[in-house]
Design a protein that fits this description.
Number of domains of chain A: 1
Structural class of chain B: alpha/beta
CATH class of chain A: Alpha Beta
Largest interface: A-B, 43 and 52 residues
Largest sheet of chain B: 7 strands, parallel
Radius of gyration of chain B: 28 Å
Number of strands of chain B: 26
Low-confidence stretches of chain A: none
Structural class of chain A: alpha/beta
Mean pLDDT of chain B: 86
Low-confidence stretches of chain B: 539-543, 694-704
Number of domains of chain B: 5
Shape of chain B: globular
Helix content of chain A: 10-25%
Order of helices and strands of chain A: EEEEHHEHEEEEEEEEEHEE
Distance between the termini of chain A: 44 Å
Mean pLDDT of chain A: 90
Shape of chain A: globular
Strand content of chain B: 15-25%
Largest sheet of chain A: 9 strands, mixed
Strand order of the largest sheet of chain B: 3-4-2-5-6-1-7
Number of helices of chain B: 29
Oligomer: heterodimer
Radius of gyration of chain A: 17 Å
CATH topology of chain A: Purple Acid Phosphatase, chain A, domain 2
Chain lengths: 220, 800
């Protein structure tokens, strides 16, 4: 599988082109910020009726990653659903998810969009520790060996903006996996403060590319 | 002949004025349901439009709104209000005149709805907003006349389509409503009349005397123009001399960035300190108003400006117009020339300043066309359906509607006269359910059918819809203002894409100031003065026009001459050299050159199809070359040619230009194309699928919003027949993609393609190497460059 390997707290992790993170030793696949049901939430609010295909698109990619990695554990790092009502996916997608969940441990981490349990089975956790790593939704500035999401980082290289992983000695921040998600440029202050000097941005796309995390030049 | 009421004849007599024949014609034909007046600038068009209203209102019997005046510019509405108030006051007529634009205060707007004036001056967008209110029938019940000013300009964009839908609505609310359109000189008045007509009723045309031929020439300069690029800064000494020789000069530029650069250099060379101002659409309103006021007061000797001064505002005593850069379009040139000498029946004086060698040729062709009164223009297509979608939503905001009645109403608007019921129903379905193949929103429809009428499911949605009224979808702009310690005043705005390239300390030009970017605060760029620094150029996109088909044809014919005595020697010699080294492009043929240069293989196609089409041609050809392993690396396009470079020499380019292959390539290429995505964004904004970003509304974390590109990709994959994709395709074919012009070019040539193999760059191709706006090819070559960049950055950071 074409991925980009890096080490975090002694664990060898692989960033995948899709934006998922695979930990081969534990057979653990992590995805963040699926935001399933976003179009439905917009419609309920009386707003624009977005193309109702993002659940299908997101699940199709997740299905492909699961087929390729055959994980024993899948961790969804929060904001898996755009809100709690969005977790009522309808029969077809509920069955699809059930098929993906069958035969493996499945952990829903709570995010800011989707606190509380959903009726789809699996474990519901605020955070989870596996070996040397801790998984939760929003990065904690003091933590080490931390895997989180929430910020939807993206970075620009040779004029192209791509969703990206941000990795330093203490943490990895995952890109948003969901189809209907935007991004926060990694030169934003909050990401700049969170990531240590020497942090690397791994850009997703057909091929993964690692570059020093782009930072805005300081005010002269 | 219908006589004017007494106060009018007295007023005219007191000023020593005589009513113009076309003004009398509008009075005489005031009862016609639709009438178009075509008159040159300075022909007293506006007064002609208003005279019948003033005459009808002079008796004081009319209650409520009588006349609605629509102008494309807010400033024009305010200007006309001032100009109209003077005669009304002097004749002591019992007429209340008010304007209503986005700048009108909330209280004034509320009052206007409750108690409308006799004459209301407004813009298409403000009218659409008024029609979205529940009390629209009350406001417009007594409306008798509507005057559409600068209707030729409105007809060029979706704003005109929206306005015609609004007029159809107004005609429902006020069945006796009469329409009058005021137009500058156009190539096909009949087309504008059909656009304006209360379909199927006809629209009459009144043609005013076009006036004497303009006095127009190319500005002679000591320095020849550069080989490529724009701006015309080489001509500044001669331009300054002309400013000194004339009372007031307008200096038109095609883009805002060029106006800024020219203004700065003009100011540096202005040793006599002549009062010269700058005016363009990106400047803050206060800055523009200052220039406008100084201009009207006769305090300025020159104004450097863009299309923002193309339309009607009365600038007083302009006696010279200088057009910098090729005019691209003869009709616009004629309208601009008309700005000089705002007096009827006096010849206007104008000078052309070509920005580079190609433009010398183009300016010469434009001069010939102006003398021959040969105007150009492309036929306007039928009304776009994204505008109709917005109109349907606006109707639903006002009151639940009957679909049959709305369809009947919409087809009375000229641009939608041929709309089929199926097309209408698809738009209604889009508004109600999203129109997706997957019927996902049955419970959450936006519009619901209740008791035979379509209305909003959630009345709160009306607010969102009103916030998004309008069809102007410029790229997102960021405000620029002085840092607080430099006064904090707004300077203008720049495109968000440009703002995102700035690093604190960078300098750029705006409003003639060189400023240093300090930081971003409350969504505005804060800047400090940086006089004397070399600015990083602001890339205001402005509107980039393609050279018209007619003008391109004229240029090709000109190139066939034996010699070019009318052209300056530097340009004539360049043509001679091209003829001896390769050959000159000819009408009905396509010239293709291949040659090596700078270590790359080059392919140059002289299609003369206009910049947009030449750009599309570049995208299509590089895609095919990529598929065939020719490893193209990039291309650049101008109005005349496309230059492609790559790793492999193209031995036989003729099969690449096969029409069917290009058409097939177009379909697949449309998939991931940036031009299509930009077009889709505009369509989605107008149709109400996505909302505009409003200042102050934006969430702090940008991760909350996602790009319309994602919606485009998703629709392409899961719902390729969706209405908005169809609309996007239609629009791109005419606009940014201009595939129609590529097909026309291939048809004209009918396979007569001249391929010249050369051992080095040709005289015509050389300037293309200096063009800005090179487009990289997204292919194997690009991927390789990304890899190289990533490896280099990692190595530099010691992370490899």
């Amino acid at each position: 599988m074409s991925g980009h390997e890096f080490t975090l707290a002694g664990a060898t992790l692989t960033a995948l082109p899709s934006g998922a993170l695979f930990w081969a030793q534990e057979a653990c696949l992590t995805v963040s910020d699926l935001h399933l049901g976003r179009s439905g939430r917009y419609a309920r609010r009386g707003g624009a009726l977005l193309p109702p295909y993002e659940v299908e698109e997101t699940l199709a990619r997740l299905d492909a990653d699961i087929a390729a990695c055959a994980p024993r554990t899948v961790i969804c790092l929060g904001d898996s659903f755009d809100d709690l009502a969005a977790a009522e996916l309808g029969e077809r997608f509920a069955l699809w998810l059930a098929r993906l969940m069958a035969g493996r441990r499945w952990i829903w981490i709570e995010g800011n969009h989707d606190p509380g349990p959903v009726a789809l089975g699996g474990e519901h956790r605020g955070e989870v520790a596996l070996g040397p790593l801790r998984f939760h939704h929003i990065a904690d500035p003091g933590a080490t060996g931390e895997v989180s999401g929430h910020y939807h980082p993206k970075a620009r290289l040779a004029g192209q903006a791509r969703r990206c992983f941000l990795v330093d000695q203490a943490r990895a921040i995952l890109p948003a996996y969901g189809t209907y998600t935007g991004g926060l440029h990694c030169d934003d202050g909050v990401l700049r403060d969170l990531m240590a000097p020497g942090a690397v941005a791994i850009l997703t796309g057909r091929t993964l590319r690692a570059v020093p995390m782009p930072r805005r030049k300081e005010n002269p | 002949m219908r006589p004017l009421p007494a106060p009018f004849t007295d007023w005219f007599a007191k000023r020593g004025w005589q009513i113009h024949p076309h003004q009398q014609a509008l009075l005489d034909r005031a009862d016609e349901s639709a009438l178009l007046l075509v008159a040159p600038t300075g022909g007293g068009k506006t007064l002609a439009g208003f005279l019948p209203s003033l005459a009808e209102l002079a008796g004081g019997a009319h209650r409520g709104l009588h006349t609605l005046y629509i102008s494309p510019l807010k400033a024009l509405a305010a200007d006309i209000r001032r100009n109209l108030t003077i005669p009304v006051m002097e004749m002591a007529l019992p007429i209340r005149i008010e304007d209503r634009t986005g700048d009108t205060s909330y209280t004034a707007r509320r009052r206007q709805r409750a108690d409308p004036p006799h004459i209301l001056l407004t813009t298409p967008e403000s009218l659409a907003l008024l029609l979205s209110y529940e009390d629209a029938p009350h406001i417009f019940a007594g409306l008798s006349r509507v005057i559409v000013d600068e209707v030729h300009a409105l007809a060029e964009s979706k704003r005109g389509d929206q306005l015609m839908l609004c007029l159809a609505r107004l005609t429902r609310l006020a069945p006796g409503l009469r329409r009058v359109g005021l137009s500058a000189t156009v190539e096909d008045p009949g087309a504008i009349a059909r656009f304006l007509a209360r379909h199927p009723d006809p629209c009459g045309i009144v043609d005013a005397d076009p006036g004497p031929d303009p006095d127009i020439a190319m500005l002679a300069t000591d320095t020849p123009p550069p080989w490529a690029g724009g701006g015309g800064r080489y001509a500044i000494p001669e331009v300054l001399a002309e400013i000194k020789r004339h009372r007031t000069t307008l200096i038109f530029h095609n883009t805002r960035a060029q106006a800024e650069l020219f203004f700065r250099d003009l100011w540096l060379a202005n040793e006599d300190g002549l009062p010269i101002g700058i005016h363009h659409g990106s400047l803050a309103r206060a800055a523009r108003e200052k220039v406008e006021t100084a201009m009207v007061a006769g305090e300025l000797r020159a104004v450097v400006c863009t299309g923002s001064l193309d339309l009607g505002i009365d600038w007083g005593d302009v006696d010279l117009v200088i057009q910098v850069g090729a005019p691209k379009n003869v009709k616009r040139l004629v309208q601009r020339i008309g700005r000089a000498n705002h007096r009827y029946n006096a010849p206007s004086k104008a000078l052309l300043v070509p920005a580079n060698r190609w433009e010398v040729v183009e300016c010469q062709a434009a001069l010939q066309a102006v003398k021959a009164r040969d105007l150009d223009g492309d036929p306007r297509g039928s009304g776009p359906r994204d505008v109709l979608c917005q109109h349907i939503l606006i109707n639903a905001c006002s009151a639940p509607f009957d679909a049959d009645a709305l369809f009947a109403e919409v087809t009375r608007a000229g641009p939608y006269a041929t709309l089929t019921r199926t097309e209408f129903d698809a738009c209604l379905d889009f508004c109600a359910t999203g129109g997706y193949a997957l019927r996902a929103y049955d419970r959450w429809q936006r519009l619901m059918l209740r008791e035979g009428r379509w209305g909003l499911r959630d009345p709160r949605a009306a607010r969102d819809i009103r916030m998004n009224i309008g069809t102007i979808t410029d790229s997102e702009m960021v405000k620029v203002r002085w840092q607080n310690r430099h006064g904090g005043q707004p300077l203008g705005e720049v495109e968000e894409a440009f703002a995102s390239t700035l690093t604190p300390g960078d300098t750029f030009l705006i409003g003639g100031h060189v400023v240093r970017y300090v930081g971003l605060r409350e969504m505005a760029l804060e800047v400090s003065p940086a006089p004397g620094r070399k600015p990083k150029i602001a890339v205001f996109s402005g509107t980039k026009f393609s050279t018209s088909t007619q003008l391109s044809e004229r240029i090709l014919h000109m190139l066939q001459a034996e010699a070019w005595p009318d052209l300056p020697p530097h340009t004539a010699e360049w043509l001679v050299l091209q003829r001896s080294v390769s050959r000159l492009p000819a009408p009905g043929r396509i010239l293709v050159e291949t040659f090596p240069a700078e270590g790359r293989a080059h392919l140059c196609i002289y299609g003369f199809a206009g910049k947009a089409a030449q750009q599309t041609l570049g995208l299509l050809l590089t895609k095919r070359m990529e598929e065939e392993g020719m490893a193209p690396l990039g291309f650049v396009a101008t109005d005349y040619a496309t230059l492609i470079w790559g790793l492999e020499t193209v031995a036989d380019p003729i099969p690449l230009l096969d029409r069917d292959a290009l058409r097939a390539g177009l379909e697949t290429w449309l998939a991931g194309n940036a031009v299509m995505k930009r077009t889709f964004r505009n369509v989605a904004l107008v149709a109400g699928l996505i909302a505009r970003n409003h200042p102050g509304q934006r969430k702090s974390g940008r991760q909350a919003t996602f790009s319309s590109d994602i919606l485009y990709d998703t629709l392409r994959r899961y719902d390729p027949d969706h209405l908005l994709l169809k609309v996007t395709r239609e629009e791109a074919m005419r606009g940014l993609v201009s595939f129609g012009r590529i097909e026309a070019m291939l048809d004209r040539a009918g396979g007569q393609i001249d391929h010249h193999v050369l051992d080095r760059v040709t005289p015509f191709a050389a300037p293309l190497f200096l063009e800005v706006g090179k487009i990289p090819v997204e292919g194997a070559g690009r991927e390789r460059l990304m890899d190289e960049a990533a490896t280099r950055l990692m190595a530099e950071a010691g992370l490899g």
